[in-house]
């Protein structure tokens, strides 16, 4: 049975206003569904609900605005439906654009930070090991739980905002230590020598999602120099193909110094051995194009590109002369864009024809000039969602293959590996 403390009860009864009372009703009802016995404080929140899906999403947030409610903890915002820095890129219906802008602004009126990124873990203030947080957005959830060792359950639209306004969440799910134990072991192949290393991390994530679903898994055998960007690609694909909210990379992520620690001393329910051939098969499954097929565009940065990824992209451009033969888009946050503008990277990439998109993503917003034909990406998440969302046919490869393909105007895949 759920027991509320005196402040929770006062909030529920309207002592802090109608908005917090509504938010507490939502949080308390969720806690009862999850069989939580109590609510706990969170240190921060990340809201997924500023992406416009129709009048209901706007009505919900504006009801809180009208009540005078404010968020109770530092709160960042996920992508919206518009690039507010480059509004001229939007190619959709004007009425939808106006409603989408209202929704983004309504969240700001509640006190949320104008981050508009699916990668809040790239911002200046990041959760720490053991922090209790309320994050939405599937890739952000799995990154926070896995890479930081912070603790969040999956908070979807409406519940995420209710948690931010109350500063409270159910003490259940991945907030609880024993629920974070791995039950499945994934034995990864050697990725050190892979010429598709970034694509292979995404492919491994896709396999993880299919094998684990919502079960926590421990991954063994990843390279010792595995980067945050590679873990980001893995987690995003796993959350897209399954319901993965936490994985442990043994020897890399903070709750898994050893396999035994990741398992919390228990035996795994099963072990899955993954071969390089398995990952190659997944890459081929995502790739809906034959080598040499003409390209309409390339889209990178889903989840949002980091500063390090932009620098890697710029170094790849140094290998080529002349102009690209198709458009190339990179999705990122305004926070990363500001850093790129400061060091000149943004200007250099723009001079080569790269279109940087912020505040949103090309697979959910009509931004790309040409989507009739093939669009290539190195993102498992983009490859998974874009065909249904915007009707494109996807070619999939590494960042290196994507850049080469953009300059040649056709799909270039190294089929030897």
What is the structure about, briefly put?
It is built from 15 helices and 14 strands. The chain has 417 residues and is of the alpha/beta class.
Low-confidence stretches: none
- Count helical runs: 15
- Cα-to-Cα separation, first versus last residue: 55 Å
Calculate the mean pLDDT score and round it: 96
What CATH calls the topology of the largest domain is Aconitase, domain 3
How much of the sequence lies in strands comes to 5-15%
Largest sheet geometry: 5 strands, parallel
The helical percent reads 25-40%
Compressed to H and E, one letter per element, the order equals: HHEEHEHEHHEEHEHEHEHEHEHHEEHEH
Number of β-strand runs: 14
CA-based shape: globular
Q: Order of strands in the sheet with the most strands? A: 12-11-10-13-14
CATH superfamily of the largest domain: Aconitase, domain 3
Secondary-structure arrangement, i.e. CATH architecture of the largest domain = 2-Layer Sandwich
The number of domains: 3
């Amino acid at each position: 049975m759920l027991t509320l403390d005196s402040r929770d009860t006062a909030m529920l009864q309207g002592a802090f206003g109608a908005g917090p009372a509504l938010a507490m009703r939502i949080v308390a009802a969720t806690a009862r569904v999850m069989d939580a016995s109590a609510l706990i404080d969170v240190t921060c929140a990340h809201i997924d609900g500023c992406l416009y899906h129709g009048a209901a999403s706007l009505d919900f947030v504006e009801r809180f605005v009208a009540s005078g409610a404010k968020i109770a903890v530092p709160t960042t915002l996920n992508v919206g439906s518009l690039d507010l820095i480059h509004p001229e890129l939007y190619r959709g219906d004007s009425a939808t654009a106006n409603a989408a802008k209202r929704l983004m602004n309504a969240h700001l009126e509640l006190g949320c930070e104008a981050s508009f990124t699916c990668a809040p873990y790239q911002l200046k203030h990041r959760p720490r090991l053991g922090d209790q947080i309320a994050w939405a957005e599937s890739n952000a959830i799995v990154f926070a739980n896995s890479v930081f060792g912070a603790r969040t359950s999956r908070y979807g639209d409406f519940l995420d905002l209710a948690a931010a306004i109350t500063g409270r969440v159910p003490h259940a799910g991945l907030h609880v230590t024993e629920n974070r134990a791995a039950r499945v072991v994934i034995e990864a192949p050697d990725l050190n020598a892979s010429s598709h290393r970034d694509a292979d991390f995404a492919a491994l994530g896709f396999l993880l999602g299919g094998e684990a679903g919502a079960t926590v898994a421990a991954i063994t055998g990843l390279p010792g120099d595995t980067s945050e960007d590679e873990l980001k690609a893995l987690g995003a694909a796993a959350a897209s193909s399954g319901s993965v909210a936490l994985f442990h990379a043994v020897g890399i992520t903070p709750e898994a110094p050893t396999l035994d620690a990741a398992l919390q001393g228990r035996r795994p329910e099963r072990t899955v051995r993954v071969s390089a051939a398995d990952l190659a098969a997944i890459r081929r499954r995502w790739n809906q194009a034959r080598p040499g097929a003409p390209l309409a565009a390339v889209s990178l940065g889903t989840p949002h590109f980091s500063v390090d990824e932009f620098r890697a992209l710029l170094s790849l451009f140094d290998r080529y002369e002349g102009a690209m033969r198709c458009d190339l888009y990179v999705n990122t946050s305004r926070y990363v864009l500001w850093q790129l503008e400061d060091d000149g990277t943004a200007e250099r990439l723009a001079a080569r024809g790269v279109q940087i998109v912020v505040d949103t993503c090309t697979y959910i917003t009509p931004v790309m000039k040409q989507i009739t034909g093939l669009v290539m990406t190195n993102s498992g998440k983009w490859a998974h969602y874009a065909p249904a969302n915007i009707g494109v046919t996807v070619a999939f490869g590494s960042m290196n293959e994507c850049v080469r393909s953009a300059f040649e105007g056709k799909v270039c895949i190294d089929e030897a590996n």
